[in-house]
Design brief:
The complex is a heterodimer of chains A (about 160) and B (about 280).
Chain A: H1 6-136, H2 146-155
Helix pairs in contact in A: 1-2
Chain B: H1 9-16, E1 21-24, E2 30-32, H2 36-42, E3 46-48, H3 49-71, H4 80-99, H5 107-123, H6 131-138, H7 152-184, H8 193-231, H9 239-276
Antiparallel strand pairs in B: 1-2, 1-3
Helix pairs in contact in B: 1-8, 3-5, 4-5, 5-9, 7-8, 7-9, 8-9
Classes of the chains: A mainly alpha (about 160), B mainly alpha (about 280).
């Protein structure tokens, strides 16, 4: 335990070393570390925000899909309804039209039948009168039997 | 090492505990000391070349390594050495923050310097005690103590530097009056100022002395035990036991060298933090 000038040398060395460390070593290292710490913190924060945004976007997308689906369902239902009413309408119109055509045809047929019957009646009356004239020869007085002939013709 | 005939245990131990001394003889000439008498003759006017050399060498190793890293330090992804250095820096920064709540640009770098430097000096204790002295003996150097922290000059002078910082900051923060007041008016009431002054001065002086002697004592004792264990290699009976002991002590010593470096660094910071403390709570 002998104290010597070594102490002086060591003290000076110690002081110089601390100065060097304070001046040249500590600041760049600690600055680099702080900067990195900040960068990492920002990165983590951004990542968290992005994750949050993503989740929100997912929710929005789901919402949109749900809306679209209900809308599509509505549209389909409406279209279905519309098409069925249209079919009904068409059916109804078609049947009405058909009926009308049938009726018109029936009316025409009736008319024709009546006309034919009228003509036939006249002809038959003519034939009957001429037939009766021939059979009875002059016996029948056209004027006397006009009523009878008319009755006959009406009966046909 | 000396000739085989002189190789007694006593000689072996004292040889291992003697520094390489360059100093002034009583006739005024400077030169290397060759014996304990020479060293005694030199007294204060002497340099422990080995202590200073290893201390500066290890300090430069620390500074240059860290400087190299610091110059190329990026805030991007750190690699290899930068990782290791940053781990130490971060550790020291946290430690200083936790015990030193004041603004001071000197503290953290000082703690870093002390911690790493003292650690490196302590680390030399784990080099087997005969290797380096034997190597230097081959080159004609008589004595070689490679662990600077087993030299009380080294530890006490570092502690004294810390002491100067304590005084400096005490006066800077509290003023001369505040500093002397703190010495005189605590812990007892003002009328007991002389007693206070004695007590507080002893407390103040005890700080650097305990700081320096703690490190010196631990490392000196550790070195001594390594040397004693090495004596066991002189006999075939104890050689295996000695080997086991040396291994065990080295493992334990790994803990001690880190712990002592840490204690020296943190106590320096704590003492200077106390110098900053102007609170009325004591």
């Amino acid at each position: 335990m002998n104290f010597t000038m070594t102490m002086v040398a060591q003290s000076v060395t110690f002081a110089v070393f601390i100065w060097f460390c304070v001046r040249f070593i500590w600041p760049p290292l600690i600055n680099a570390m702080r900067e990195r710490q900040k960068t990492i913190a920002e990165g983590i924060e951004n990542a968290e925000k992005a994750e949050h945004d993503l989740a929100e976007a997912g929710l929005r997308a789901q919402e949109a899909i749900k809306n679209a689906r209900t809308e599509a369902d509505q549209i389909i239902a409406q279209a279905r309804r519309q098409s069925s009413t249209m079919i009904e309408e068409a059916k109804r119109e078609a049947s009405e039209e058909g009926e009308r055509i049938v009726q018109a045809a029936q009316a025409e047929i009736d008319q024709e039948v009546n006309r034919a019957r009228e003509r036939l009646r006249e002809e038959v009356a003519g034939i009957a009168v001429s037939g009766a004239e021939r059979i009875l020869e002059e016996e029948i007085d056209r004027d006397k039997h006009a009523d009878l002939l008319k009755k006959l013709a009406a009966e046909l | 090492m000396a000739a085989a005939g002189e190789l007694t245990s006593n000689y072996y131990i004292s040889h291992h505990l003697t520094n390489l001394v360059y100093g002034r003889f009583s006739d005024g000439t400077w030169g290397l000391a060759h014996s304990a008498e020479d060293i005694a003759e030199m007294g204060f006017m002497a340099f422990h070349i080995d202590s200073i050399g290893w201390s500066i060498g290890l300090g430069l190793l620390f500074l240059l390594t860290f400087w190299m890293v610091a110059r190329r330090a990026t805030s991007g992804i750190p690699k290899g050495l930068q990782n290791a250095v940053e781990m130490i820096v971060d550790y020291i920064d946290d430690m200083v923050r936790s015990v030193f709540p004041y603004q001071n640009k000197l503290m953290a770098p000082m703690a870093l310097t002390i911690f790493v430097w003292v650690f490196l000096m302590n680390l030399m204790d784990l080099v087997p005690v005969d290797w380096v002295p034997a190597l230097f003996a081959l080159m004609g150097v008589e004595y070689m103590k490679i662990v600077p922290t087993t030299d009380v000059n080294i530890t006490i002078s570092m502690a004294m530097c810390v002491f100067i910082l304590i005084i400096f900051y005490s006066i800077k923060i509290k003023g001369i009056g505040g500093f002397l007041g703190e010495l005189a008016f605590h812990p007892f009431p003002k009328f007991l100022a002389p007693i206070n002054l004695v007590l507080e001065t002893v407390t103040l002086i005890a700080k650097p002395i305990s700081l320096g002697l703690r490190l010196f004592g631990n490392l000196y004792a550790g070195e001594m035990i390594f040397i004693l264990i090495c004596l066991m290699y002189s006999s075939f009976v104890t050689i295996v036991f000695g080997g086991i002991l040396q291994w065990a002590w080295a493992v334990f010593h790994v803990l001690i060298i880190i712990l002592q470096a840490f204690i020296f660094a943190i106590l320096s910071v704590v003492y200077i933090a106390q110098a900053h403390d102007t609170g009325e709570d004591h």
